[in-house]
Specification:
single chain, 397 residues, Adenine-n6-DNA-methyltransferase TaqI, Chain A, domain 2, 2 domains, 4-stranded mixed β-sheet
Length: 397
């Protein structure tokens, strides 16, 4: 059914402002800015305790329970959140349009509207400014919103809230799988018994028949201008930054270029670790990876699997306190942190028997299967949410 549309500002109450330096003086207050918003959950998760005299110049808007915050700065126009009761009276940044619904507008309905693709896409189109693109609060208030009767607004919001709740529960379940692997690794390998196992440098655990550990081509060996749309894949930080192998931005080189750079080939079962920028992230290359090489931002390790399994070394990099302390202590760089192949080679690994590694690998594979099933269900819930959201707001131009 089609509902009438009205200017959003016609359904809003005014929001008071103040100068925290005067109101709070030397006392502490809660400040909500863009960094406080979790972009995925659309919740305020990290408000900042601030002293009045130290308040940022943008701290001006007095928030109330039920307010809806909409970022006005691109590319963060989808950073939206509702103000919960425990943040009533906190101070919001002027980087938000603070929307306080009147009696004709349900705040949860408003929240779902401003996170919809139709609203966000319009704000993106209208964002102005070369160096700091943003929309004005006036632009937000002049945008149109479908306005069904209040009972229908609440019904729509209730349906979308229910799917959101399912997504949050699924996220919590997925997170428990990672915690389960943490506990399993700690129980098997970070105990007093683990310290008795011999410490072996990573460089002594690699496949001895070739270049068991290597970084990608440097400098003029591989230029950005040589990337093509199709061919041999080039793996970078984005393929390992989540600590699981994922396809990300496509990069390829020609077969002719690969013939020159073949020594940088990535093999199934190799362990990748990031050594520039976001250092110390790791992933295991899957069995079905097509022909690929890695960039200089990754260290690629081909293990002697008669001694050390990829699943174990991957978990060791991410979970063992010795590895974490070693990598954190040696990451260096005035502008951007960085490691190098020599540092990775020397990292000490307290190496358990292969049988223990195999047990760990089998158990983590089962946990991984359950996690992947959970992630597939999460994708289904995402698609369901988008479909319901589209149906709710389909008649809005």
């Amino acid at each position: 059914m089609s509902w009438p549309t009205v200017a959003l500002g016609d359904c809003l109450e005014p929001v008071p402002t103040l100068d925290p330096a005067r109101r709070f003086a030397d006392t502490e207050f809660t400040y909500v800015d863009l960094s406080s918003i979790d972009r995925d959950s659309k919740r305020i998760v990290a408000p900042t305790p601030t002293i009045g005299i130290e308040a940022p110049s943008r701290a001006r808007q007095v928030l109330a329970t039920g307010d809806v915050l909409v970022s006005t700065v691109r590319p963060n126009l989808n950073a939206v959140a509702c103000v919960d009761g425990d943040l009533d009276g906190s101070i919001g940044s002027t980087g938000f349009a603070v929307l306080r619904p009147s009696e004709s507008l349900d705040h949860r309905y408003l929240f779902h509207w401003v996170r919809s693709a139709r609203f966000v896409d319009r704000m993106v189109r209208l964002a102005a400014g070369a160096s700091y693109p943003a929309v004005s609060e006036r632009t937000v208030r002049e945008s149109l919103i479908p306005l069904p009767p209040l009972d229908e607004q609440r019904r729509i919001a209730g349906v979308l809230d229910a799917v959101d709740l399912l997504r949050n529960k699924r996220d919590a379940t997925i997170a428990t799988f990672d915690k389960l692997v943490d506990s399993l690794f700690a129980g098997m390998f970070v105990s007093n018994d683990g310290a008795r196992w011999p410490a072996v440098a990573v460089g002594n655990l690699v496949e001895p028949s070739g270049a068991g550990i290597r970084t990608g081509p440097f400098g003029s060996q591989l230029l950005h201008s040589e990337f093509v749309d199709d061919g041999v894949a080039v793996l970078g930080i984005d393929n390992a930054v989540t600590n699981e192998f994922r396809w990300a931005k496509p990069r390829h080189i020609t077969q002719a270029k690969y013939a020159v750079l073949g020594r940088y080939t990535v093999n199934p079962g190799d362990v990748l670790i990031t050594i520039m920028g976001t250092c110390g992230r790791a992933a295991v290359v899957p069995d079905d990876v097509p022909p690929a090489i890695n960039t200089k931002h990754l260290c690629c390790i081909t293990l002697d699997q008669r001694r050390c399994l990829p699943t174990f070394l991957h978990a060791y990099f991410l979970r063992h306190p010795i590895a974490r302390s070693y990598l954190l202590g040696r990451a260096k760089g005035a502008v951007m942190s960085g490691l190098n192949m020599g540092i990775i080679k020397e990292l000490p690994v307290h190496l358990p028997p292969l049988a223990a590694q195999l047990t760990f690998a089998r158990l983590t594979e089962r946990i991984g299967d359950a996690k992947r099933a959970g992630m597939q269900h999460r994708c289904y819930l995402d698609a369901l949410f988008v479909s319901l959201q589209h149906r709710a707001f389909a008649d809005v131009l």
